[in-house]
UniProtKB/TrEMBL annotation:
CDD domains in the cross-refs: PIN_YqxD-like (cd18720)
Provenance organism: Modicisalibacter tunisiensis
The organism's place on the tree of life at top rank: Bacteria
Family of the protein in this entry: Belongs to the UPF0178 family.
Any one Pfam family match given in the protein's UniProt record, by short name: DUF188
Protein's name in the database: UPF0178 protein KGQ91_15360
Length: 149
């Protein structure tokens, strides 16, 4: 059975809660990885994994443990690329799939936006995590779990 992996440092709490409920409901192992202890409810299926603080420590641990067929939930594009290379599926906490077909264009857009910000342009940050985002993520996760049982 595939496992769920969550890059929990930057994942909205509402999305983490959705993962925990889905793991319990479907009896799917879920790992929420962060560089600090996460407050998680007691669960047989969803576990927190604290790693040493440091640049990319959580990412490195996730990549080390991922196996083909697992699902990673992250918006970290370099981490997503590594996961895809290992044969894992990837989606964002908004339910958007990150695939070999779309990851390169997203990295290029991210790099372009960083260049704009470095030149003094105010590009704004990501939009807030809305109820629609929660629904989209929950639906995408449910569809993925249904396909991979």
């Amino acid at each position: 059975m595939p496992s769920l992996w969550v890059d929990a440092d930057a994942c909205p709490r509402a999305a983490r809660d959705i993962v925990i409920r889905a793991a319990e409901r479907t009896r799917t192992p879920a790992w929420l990885v962060a560089n600090h202890a996460l407050p998680l409810p007691p669960s047989r299926w969803a576990k927190g994994l604290s790693v040493a603080s440091g640049l990319d420590a959580a990412d490195d641990e996730i990549v080390r443990r991922l196996v083909p067929g697992d699902l990673l939930i992250t918006s970290d594009l370099p981490l997503a690329m590594e996961a895809l290379d290992k044969g894992a599926a990837v989606m964002t906490s908004r339910g958007e799939p990150l695939t070999a077909d779309n990851i390169r264009s997203r990295v290029q857009m991210r790099d372009f936006m960083e260049t704009l910000r470095a030149s003094g342009e105010h590009t704004g940050g990501p939009k807030g995590y809305s109820d629609a985002d929660r629904r989209e993520f929950a639906n995408a996760l449910d569809r993925w779990l249904a396909r991979h049982r």
